[in-house]
Amino acid sequence: MEAAGPVTRTAARRRDRRLRASATLEEQRERRPGRRRPRRRIEEDQEAVFREVVSFTPNPLPDRYYDKDTTKPISFYLSSLEELLAWTPDVEEGFNVALGPPECRQPPLSSGRPRTLICHDMMGGYLDDKFIQGSAAQTPYSFYHWQYIDIFVYFSHHTVTIPPVGWTNAAHRHGVCVLGERRGLASGTFITEWKKGKQLCEAFLAGDERSRQAVADQLVLMAQFFRFDGWLINIENSLSLAAVGNLPHFLRYLTARLHQQVPRGLVLWYDSVVSSGQLKWQDELNEQNRVFFDSCDGFFTNYNWREEHLERMLGQAGERLADVYVGVDVFARGSVVGGRFDTDKSLELIRKHGFSAALFAPGWVYECLEKADFFQNQDKFWSLLEHYLPTHSICSLPFVTSFCLGMGTRRVCYGQEEAVGPWYHPSAQEIQPLFGEHRLEGDGRGWVKTHCCLADAWNGGSSLLIRGVIPPEVGNVAVRLFSLQVPVPPKIFLSLVYKLEGPSAVGVALELTTGDAGSCHIGGIMMLNEMSSRHSPRPLRVPPTKLARWVGRCGQELSGGWVQRCYEVSLRGCLLQDLFVSFSRPPGSQEEENFTCRLGEIQVVDANSLLAPLPQVQAMTVSHVRWQAAASEGEGRPAGLRLSCTLHWSYLLPHVRCFRVHCCRGTGGGSPGRGLSEPEKPTFLGLAFINRYRIVDLAVAPAGLGRDGRVEFLVEPVPKEGFLVPRAEWGRAAMLYSMPRT
Questions:
Q1: Nearest in space to 475 (alpha carbons), one of 596, 597, 567, 591
Q2: Does residue 38 have a pLDDT over 70?
Q3: Residue 17 phi, psi dihedral angles, 5° rounding
Q4: Side-chain half-sphere CA neighbours of 711 within 13 A
Q5: CA dihedral 366, 370, 373, 374 (to 10 degrees)
Q6: What are phi and psi of 430, to 5 degrees?
Q7: Helix or strand holding residue 643 (H, E)
Q8: pTM of the shown model
Q9: What is the DSSP string of 372-426?
């Protein structure tokens, strides 16, 4: 199974070398004075076992990478040129590395089609999204209309903004490129910083070539190491003639180097400084800033434009119309066209002239409107723009989604409730569908509408809620959920998990459209219309014997009232283009049918990939251990312990969707050889999207007098195909701990 998205072999080797170097660096760091590492031995069953003497001596972690109060891993930024130039890849930064590059998509950014960029600016940035392993935020901001978006920029008021990895993972899963921001200064509302910004820029731009290249090389290395896709350059301070004269050279070098090291990397320039060195926003591409446009991949205009600005830009942009991103301030500050719920007026003019659009701060719907109505307002905002936002298609298998938003009021795993309480984890957001309302032609009595919904879930924290009406004169209604462009293998396996609400007996089925990729031959499918390429696969009553391990629940009612329908389809020489869900009236019914259906999961996988052996979680280690005393549970009972530590393991990331981390806690006594002879139901701790996880304040029993306490950690890989891996194939490591001798 190949990793999704084009990655050169050179880039892969370079990344492997970096990971090997990080491992070596970690070993060196663990040997340093002050770093305690548990003593390890391997048992007969190959479970890694570590011994630890409990110590309450402070052992602080770097507060750039960890929350100083809890030691939770956090995203970070750089505040000065000195920090940027001093930065080197460090093992502590491993939590900030994205799972992989953007998924393959069609059309590619290079197609020349006008694009849509969103610039996420929310209250200074690095809010709940800075907690890499998630938080318990009750009403967080969530973005989920990714199918309309081509480029995502994370904006904050720091010199170098590194996108929080949760945003990068969510965007990449949808085939969206992610840019960080390199600012010449912090927010223009702090006037004293204008001078600091100028000083920073003069330090590297007014000097020799090596100074400029050193800064560019660092920016490229950061994008490469953290696996995001480029930079928005935003210099909002005046420059000397020497500095502004060297600025195009800096942009050209940065752009060229990024293209070499980061596949599909982008450098964009924000409309601010002009060629004279003055800070003078133009609200258009013109002769005063054209030199910067010519030196990089694109130009992001300021927001106070009128249609005459767009008309003038047609001549300036030439064949690069799509490389001009016309800025739209969704907050509607200043003298702007549209904004807020009138943003469609801006988009109408921008698309009329063939330009790309850059939507600044679409989180307006969250910041300025009622939090209780956030999902309705978000859907309303994007539905008003839908006509002007071309979608892109995903073009790789496996294609799997549980519709999870990366948040919820509880956690569910395959229909079983694991935990109750709010949670927010952007990396856990699954591929989102096309949202909206779809009406039948004619009198409009038949319709289908899709919503995200936190009230119930099959896997994660949310599901897709579909409501609709089947009018008496038609047999069914259908809604297109995903646009794909996938050259399919000879045989594919499809699965749909759903649940009907209330007494409705409508039929629910997957439908798909195909395109000809040579000579398209179809088997196991019913043609809906001889003039159409839309088909309805026939459900399997029982799964094929060879796939029973993965799909043994086909056609059965599952936990929580969910139902799974499975399909096996033969397609040779075909493109899989669209996925629909169809709702048909019950046999004998001639009345109007209202229905409410929840979708919990859709899977489309290469059937042969399910037969391939899975990689194993290997080489589990425990490091960065911290102990704290917990309050006693009652009179006469010993005080408990709280354990924090970092787990590491080896696994081939291109094969994984995520890792689920669990623990089994002992009772304060135990023997090293117990292993799993006394099975205990594991406690779910959290999700990881890289080969490490930080356990924070885990309550464990105190070690008994003369006896070891024991806690076992388990790492469950979730393959990209989305199926459960048996517990016997999880990675395991145990920690035996004892109290110090007095």
A1: 591
A2: no
A3: -60, -40
A4: 23
A5: 10
A6: -90, 170
A7: strand 639-650
A8: 0.91
A9: GGHHHHHHHHHHHHGGG----EE--S-EEE----SEEEEEEETTEEEEEEEEE-G
